[in-house]
Amino acid sequence: MAKKIKVKLILELQATQMSQREISRTRKMSQHSVSDVFKIAKELGITYYDVQEKTDEEVYQMFYPDKYSTENIYMPPDYTFIHTELKRTGVTLKLLWEEYKDSCKTSGNLSMGYTKFCEGYSDHVTKNSLANHLVHKPGMVCEVDWSGSTMSIIDIETGEIIKVYLFVATLPYSQYSYIEPCLDMKQNTWLKCHVNMFEFFGGSTVRITCDNLKTGIISHPRDGDIILNESYEDLGNHYLSAIMPTGVRKPKHKPSVEGTVGKIATAIIAKLRDRSFQSLQELKIEVDQRLKDFNAAPFQKREGSRVKIFNSVEKEHLRPLPVVPFEVSEWVHGHTVALDCHVAYMTNRYSVPFKYVGKKVDLKVTDSLVEIYLGSERIYTHLKFPKYSKYKWCTVREHMPDQFNQTLWDDERIRKWASSIGPCTSEVIERIFSSVSIKEQGYNSALSVLRISKKYPSERLEVACEIALERIRAPRYRNIMSILSSNQDQIVLEKRVKSQLKDSNNNDQGYVRGSKFYGGGDC
Q1: Cα separation, 165 vs 487, whole angstroms
Q2: pLDDT tens-place string over residues 103-114
Q3: Backbone phi, psi, residue 229, to 5°
Q4: DSSP alpha helices (H): ranges in 64-111?
């Protein structure tokens, strides 16, 4: 659509004695349009001083009444309603224009084209000093990043200066921001910051925009699918948020958080530069207070403040949080279900239904749970033992095989094997079985001891078991292997051999010669 001629501006410049050519060149106007305005003004006897109190629209109507009436035959859209509707999820100007056309058709009025419709909306936003929602909609996007600038704390015991990193998140619509100090930028820290961020906002967004950081993105090819790591993808699924990395080396794709990173360098980091902090918690308290001030500070080029716009508009557009917050998890792949129907994680063991014995399973480990998966199927979930618990068993009795579903090895066969090696080895196996609540729990431990006989002679294993029994109530594989690898059993065996030789020498009687040998009588 052709632009309206700026009649009033041309008359104003004419009044300053500027020529047609100069007006056309300096104001990027068509020389024909400028000449036409000069001609009509002369015909009507109108100067700038006659129209300086009138609006641009009124002056244009005076010079081009026919064009003005043609351009205003369209049914005017309700731009106030349109501005409000654009805040809603999925609503675009294109959709609202189509609805406007349908409305005009129903009422029998003429509708304007899409270009004029958009220009009208833009003029409405400018005229009423409104925030244009064409770029950002409330509750749609959250931009996250690490601040390039860091802070520090001092270890009071060693005097060491410890670097502190800042996680930064911003909602582009309101510019409401969240900041969290962290001791590292590892994956678990990154994920926990997201959980805390959503708790701070009181809801989640439709999208999360981030960098192509290694803790979140495995691959971002030029063509093809973006591959997220499992934990970051799980977090997105938990909060129903689509994780959308920016283009590679494209920081302008998340301008809001980039801007916030720059602003907090002054609002937080610079203001606290002369303060010393002796703990992360102490630093967090101070950063939280500065963040509160930052969000409450009034905008310079916009009405209100971050927190005011967030509370009045954006907060209600956020998605409600799940009942249970996301737990940061670790995936451990390729663990084999042992004969005792358990899988090991760290030093503890967790039971699995006996039908999965010998299969490879994956473990999803959170702060409180151990979830066991076969492919994409979750087999069972156990409460996780605390970090200080070692060599514990978490066994569900129903997971153990019944009399019709015995595993290849049973306690009777294991005991027979132990007896064939020696009484001390047999006693070690008995103590292993007596230390567990269900006999199947002892299979792996007992077999690992007995299989030592395939690496060392049975005589050495028997002596090692004897030594272990003297020192430990219920010896295990690691205890016996420690004795064998350090040759403690050999030392004991050598002492025994020497002792037997000594006893043998003490018991020798020699030959007794009778009197006949010395020429005497019968002996």
Answers
A1: 51
A2: 888 877 778 788
A3: -75, 160
A4: 65-71, 79-85, 93-107
Using alpha carbons, select from 341, 345, 436, 453 the residue that is nearest to residue 396: 341
- Token pair 């205890």 in the structure block, residue: 479
Averaged over successive runs of 10 residues, the pLDDT of the chain (523 residues) comes to 72 84 81 87 86 80 68 73 75 83 82 82 71 66 89 85 92 92 89 93 90 60 56 84 70 72 85 87 93 90 86 91 84 87 89 90 88 90 82 83 54 86 91 80 83 88 90 87 88 80 60 51 45
- DSSP reduced 3-state for 374: strand
- pLDDT, tens only, 405-435: 444 567 788 888 888 899 999 999 998 888 8
DSSP codes, 390-426: -S-EE--GGGS--TTS--S--HHHHHHHHHHH-HHHH
- Rounded CA separation 36/82 (Å): 37
* Rounded-to-integer distance, Cα 300 and Cα 263, Å: 13
Structural class in CATH, domain 141-317: alpha beta
Contact 329, 365 (CB under 8 A): yes
Question: Amino acid letter at 507?
Answer: N
For 53-104, how does the pLDDT look when each residue is reduced to its tens digit (9 = 90+)?
888 778 877 887 766 545 556 678 888 888 888 776 557 788 888 888 888 8
Q: What is d(CA 418, CA 430) in angstroms, rounded to the nearest whole number?
A: 9
Q: Are 442 and 342 in contact (CB under 8 A)?
A: no
Q: In this structure, which amino acid lies at residue 318?
A: L
Task: Give the residues across from 363 on adjacent strands.
Answer: 332, 372
Q: Is 28 helix (H, G, I), strand (E, B) or coil?
A: coil
Domain extents in the chain: 7-71, 79-127, 141-317, 330-399, 420-506
- Tell me the whole-structure pTM to 2 decimals: 0.49
Query: Mapping DSSP to helix (H, G, I), strand (E, B) and coil, where does residue 372 land?
Result: strand
For the chain, what is the total number of helices (H) and then of strands (E)? 20, 15
Element holding 157 (H helix, E strand)? none
| Spatial separation of the C-alpha atoms in residues 351 and 338, rounded to whole Å | 9
User: Cβ–Cβ contacts within 10 Å for residue 475, how many?
Assistant: 25
Q: Using an 8 Å Cβ cutoff, are 137 and 173 in contact?
A: yes
Residue 203 near residue 178, CB atoms below 8 Å? no
Please give the biggest Cα pair distance in the chain. Answer: 178
Q: Which two tokens stand for residue 287?
A: 């950063």
Strand boundaries in 366-478, DSSP class E: 369-374, 377-383, 393-394
> Distance (Å, rounded) from C-alpha 115 to C-alpha 1?
7
Q: Which amino acid is at 363?
A: L
The phi, psi pair for 361, rounded to 5°, reads -125, 160
SS3 162: strand
Cα 481 to its chain centre, rounded Å, is 42
